[in-house]
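cache lookup: miss for this entity combination. No prior model stored, computing from scratch. Input as submitted by user K.M.:
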Amino acid sequence: MKIQSTRFGELEVAAEHILKFEQGIPGFPGETEFAFLPYGSDSPFAFLQSTTDADLAFLIVEPFSFLPEYTFELTDEWSDQIGVSTDNPPQVFNIVSIKESLNQSTVNLLAPVVVNWRDRKAKQIILEKVEYTTKHLLFPNGLPDQTAQGGK
Amino acid sequence: MLALTRRVGERIVIGDNVVVTIVDIKGDSIRIAIDAPREIKIYRGEIFDAIAAENKQAAVPQATAALDILKGIHKK
């Protein structure tokens, strides 16, 4: 599938990397299809690029490599809606709000994106009864030492 | 948009399976009870608005130096 992206130019994206957000996402109800673009082969980061709006892309991150203590309950209603189960486990991402100063960049822990890779469906859910916020600092302890991390 | 006037104890029925009951009014606070199937998610408007606003802020991370730094980070 050919996709136009302001950030990445023209892209050819395999069908298995296209995710359907049936109800869009909050703030973008009409955006129901995004291409999943990994940010390098071994990166916890990836982009979600709208297939219809070249200007619209989100940076997302796999939370567990940054926040091993991050947990939430995926209710049966969410699991059924997204189509995930113990046999088809979800992958979780959180949307990053990147700032010019990386130290100020935040990650939205209150509304994770849950992906069903088997059916290529995804949904941004809003957690209830949790302490997480929409603006958790991505690097609360300062920037990681990349040279030290690279070899692990 | 439909606007209805209701008294305490009166209800509004939406579709086949959502019932909204006005429970109590104190000053400018109104207590509402909502009976709906579990798959219908109900949020306070400001929570949904906060997520939408956060998404709008997060959208379109155009070429920033910060993004290049992130590229150097690998999974632990």
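stored under new cache key. Chain A has one domain: 2-143.
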